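Ops channel
N.P.: pipeline sanity check, posting one input/output pair.
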């Protein structure tokens, strides 16, 4: 599943998520976001078994959004997968973003409403154009940095 995610090809990933009904749309959207944000895998740690049917896979990536914040930090995304036999039934993600990431996001929401109503418009929490949103947020983060840098 991790290889399929970072292939940035939803036709490869989607079949692996077909039984993860509650997660499928969100993970496919996240894949499109990652493609739009130019995610590059830097470190792929071995997956860790959390229980008989659960594993966690941590991947450190460099992406345009975090690079725009000029911190030198690379984010680690963790995929938490639940299986039934060999079938993926659930996928959740978490990330170790720094506080500046959230400040920049709030700044974009407050100062660039066209981004949130356009490229980042969402329907039920799923962005309609996640790749475009990632690119628009990257531009927004660059504008944020121009404002906050001395």
């Amino acid at each position: 599943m991790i290889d399929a995610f970072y292939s940035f090809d939803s036709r490869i990933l989607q079949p692996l998520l077909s039984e993860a009904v509650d997660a499928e749309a969100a993970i496919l959207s996240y894949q499109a976001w990652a493609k739009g944000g130019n995610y590059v895998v830097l470190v792929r740690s071995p997956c860790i078994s959390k229980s008989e049917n659960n594993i966690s896979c941590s991947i450190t990536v460099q992406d345009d959004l975090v690079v725009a914040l000029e911190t030198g930090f690379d984010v680690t995304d963790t995929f938490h997968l639940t299986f039934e036999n060999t079938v993926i039934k659930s996928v959740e993600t978490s990330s170790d973003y720094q506080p500046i990431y959230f400040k920049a996001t709030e700044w974009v929401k407050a100062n660039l409403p066209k981004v949130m109503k356009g490229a980042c418009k969402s329907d039920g929490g799923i962005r309609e154009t996640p790749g475009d949103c990632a690119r628009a947020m990257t531009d927004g983060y660059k504008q944020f940095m121009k404002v906050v840098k001395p």
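N.P.: looks fine end to end. The CA atoms of residues 39 and 63 lie 4 Å apart.
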